[in-house]
């Protein structure tokens, strides 16, 4: 079975939409001057690259207009996330049919040994014919050879089906998991492990049992043909085993589900503690960390032990039933042989065929745990992909200039009644720089995440160049935005790769330009390996401030038109703050719109506008020269009031 072209590596192609990158390589200095307008965007090239990410295929020449022409481009059919599983299963249907056909032939060939013993007992031993023995042996060996080859072939096909399914679902599941994690649903990262579990199940022995089980009636029919009484014994045993299987499902499915949920929560705890290993070690929190993880893990093991115990009991009963059935068939067959109704060979053949008929049912009971876990994993993957998402294909727009408009933003986190933002409105022209200040818990970081499209407002809208962020193509929007979150996370890899946003097509000129614009080139040059310095999972060898500066350069990469910085100077020293102020000045000269969330007044001189946010509402918004004096006067009044009230600490305002 051949794999489709959309295999795993191409799914995660990092080709950057457009011919714009090629143009920059050919002329790296184009557009560098702040006096020049941004170069036009090749929408056709962007769309073609975007289609390759959705459904990788060999490149076919694209058509379409340039930036701002309004002409539609040639597009492939867009595949919504809700259709991903259906289309993935449809793509694997041919392989599944092949495995089914192989299973039919294999189960027919499984009658070779019983028929061979039957012929030896009733024909060869009575006729004493060496020629008959030789011919029967050659036929039996040939049939068994074909059986082994077909069994190996169906295992190969199942392996490729499993890989194909994961290659088709991997990127959509990763995308859905990251989008869910972006709004706080970190449990959905488990979907990646769930997908691997589904693949392991398809590639495992229980899947073969499920293909063999429908052939059980063939074996029961063969036993009936030998003698009806033996067929009744075998069929009765099959009914009993089927009842045990149903009872096993009802007694263990719930417990296995509970065990899986607790195991997932334990994995989340372990991942969180691994990220905070230094804090745990420094503050002596090791015992508490182990206790938090241990509670979830112990609950998972307890439920799993209960389910395993029940499964073991029922599996033992099923094995007992099968063995007793064989004894019963042999005993009753011997009685029938004494009566002259069957021969000795028919008795042995009936016993072997009945055992083969009951084996898939017994195997299903033994492997029920794997089936239940794979079923739960599949349901979690499906529920993740079925979540409402903004899957509508968006037209590729001209490169934005950077005009930002927030209109009556309201945000109530899902599952809560707390209003984080309420009626927030402001407008920024291209090249404006805004400082968002206010007390902690006022909604500043939430506003920052909303401005870059990480979360959607409950009501209201955020517009970039008059277009709602939800109506921008997500990748095009991401290329036009730089974002520095409050919690800095760098990817394992080189400093160069992190600044380039992990894009393989990034040029050295683009990376150096972003580093120079952020003012970190000199800092990077201090490392022995420079831009090739490897960053570990924990961010070493970088300090907190250095990580923040690298992340700042990443935000400036690719000539974004809107940059949102959340507490960019939280870990910076005096030199770092000077570099930040210089970076903001350079961004302003290049016409880049900057939104800066800060608690420190040192950078307020670098912005053109100030917004004060209190309890999710705009307390003041305007030009810096108008807001800053009022802010300083208010701070002095509060300090004076605090001085007049001994014992009451002053509340500093940014």
From TrEMBL:
NCBIfam families: type_I_sec_PrtD
Protein name: ATP-binding cassette subfamily C protein
GO MF, any single term: ATP hydrolysis activity
Source species: Chelatococcus caeni
Low complexity: bias regions: 19-32
Record's keyword annotation contains Membrane: yes
PANTHER family listed in its UniProt record: ABC TRANSPORTER TRANSMEMBRANE REGION, ATP-BINDING CASSETTE SUB-FAMILY B
Transmembrane segments: 96-118, 130-150, 218-247
Recorded GO CC terms: plasma membrane; type I protein secretion system complex
PROSITE patterns, per the entry: ABC_TM1F, ABC_TRANSPORTER_2
Location of the ABC transporter domain: 404-640
């Amino acid at each position: 079975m051949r794999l489709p072209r959309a295999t795993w590596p191409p799914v995660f192609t990092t080709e950057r939409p457009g011919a714009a990158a090629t143009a920059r390589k050919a002329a790296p200095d184009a557009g560098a001057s702040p006096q020049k307008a941004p170069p036009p965007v090749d929408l056709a090239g962007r769309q073609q690259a975007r289609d390759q990410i959705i459904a990788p295929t060999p490149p076919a020449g694209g058509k379409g207009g340039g930036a701002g022409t309004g002409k539609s481009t040639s597009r492939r059919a867009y595949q919504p996330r809700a259709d991903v599983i259906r289309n993935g299963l449809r793509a694997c249907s041919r392989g599944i049919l092949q495995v089914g056909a192989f299973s039919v032939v294999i189960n027919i060939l499984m009658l070779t040994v019983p028929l061979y013993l039957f012929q030896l007992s009733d024909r060869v031993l009575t006729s004493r014919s060496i020629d008959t023995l030789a011919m029967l042996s050659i036929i039996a060996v040939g049939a068994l050879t074909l059986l082994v080859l077909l069994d190996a072939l169906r295992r190969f096909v199942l392996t490729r089906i499993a890989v194909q399914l994961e290659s088709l679902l991997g990127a959509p599941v990763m995308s859905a998991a990251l989008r869910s994690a972006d709004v706080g649903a970190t449990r959905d990262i488990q979907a990646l492990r769930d997908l691997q579990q589904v693949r392991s199940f398809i590639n495992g022995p229980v899947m073969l049992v499920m293909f063999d089980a429908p052939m059980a009636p063939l074996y029961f029919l063969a036993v009936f043909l030998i003698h009806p009484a033996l067929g009744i014994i075998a069929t009765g045993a099959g009914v009993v085993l089927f009842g045990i299987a149903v009872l096993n499902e009802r007694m263990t499915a719930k417990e296995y589900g509970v065990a899986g949920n607790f195991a997932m929560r334990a994995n989340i705890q372990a991942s969180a503690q691994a990220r905070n290993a230094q804090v745990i070690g420094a503050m002596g929190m090791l015992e508490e960390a182990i206790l938090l993880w241990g509670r979830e893990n112990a609950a998972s093991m307890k439920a799993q032990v209960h389910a395993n115990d029940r499964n073991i009991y029922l599996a033992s009963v099923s094995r007992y039933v099968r063995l007793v059935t064989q004894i019963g068939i042999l005993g009753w067959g011997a009685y029938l042989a004494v009566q002259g109704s069957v021969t000795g060979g028919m008795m042995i053949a009936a016993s072997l065929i009945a055992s083969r008929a009951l084996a898939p049912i017994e195997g299903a009971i033994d492997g029920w745990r794997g089936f239940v876990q794979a079923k739960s994993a599949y349901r979690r993957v499906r529920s993740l992909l079925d979540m409402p998402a903004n899957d509508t294909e968006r037209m590729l727009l001209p490169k934005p200039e950077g005009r930002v408009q927030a209109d009556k933003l309201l945000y109530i986190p899902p599952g809560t009644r707390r209003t984080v933002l309420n009626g927030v409105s402001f407008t920024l022209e291209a090249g404006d720089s805004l400082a968002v200040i206010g007390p902690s818990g006022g909604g500043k970081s939430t506003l920052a995440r909303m401005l870059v499209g990480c979360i959607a407002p409950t009501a209201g809208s955020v517009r970039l160049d008059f277009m709602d962020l939800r109506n921008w193509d997500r990748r095009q929007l991401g290329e036009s935005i730089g974002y520095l979150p409050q919690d800095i996370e760098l990817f394992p890899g080189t400093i160069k790769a992190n600044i380039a946003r992990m894009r393989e097509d990034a040029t050295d000129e683009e990376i150096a330009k972003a580093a120079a614009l952020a003012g970190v080139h000199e800092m990077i040059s201090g490392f022995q390996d420079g831009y090739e310095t490897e960053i570990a999972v924990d961010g070493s060898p970088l300090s907190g401030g250095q990580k923040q500066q690298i992340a700042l350069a990443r935000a400036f990469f690719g000539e974004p038109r809107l940059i949102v910085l959340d507490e960019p100077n939280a870990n910076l020293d005096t030199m770092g703050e000077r570099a930040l102020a210089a970076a903001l000045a350079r961004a302003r000269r290049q016409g880049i719109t900057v939104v800066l969330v800060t608690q420190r007044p040192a950078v307020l001189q670098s912005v053109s506008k100030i917004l004060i946010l209190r309890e999710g509402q705009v307390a003041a918004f305007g030009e810096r020269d108008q807001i800053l004096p009022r802010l300083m006067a208010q701070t002095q009044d509060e300090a004076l009031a605090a001085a007049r009230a001994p014992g009451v600490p002053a509340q500093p305002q940014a």
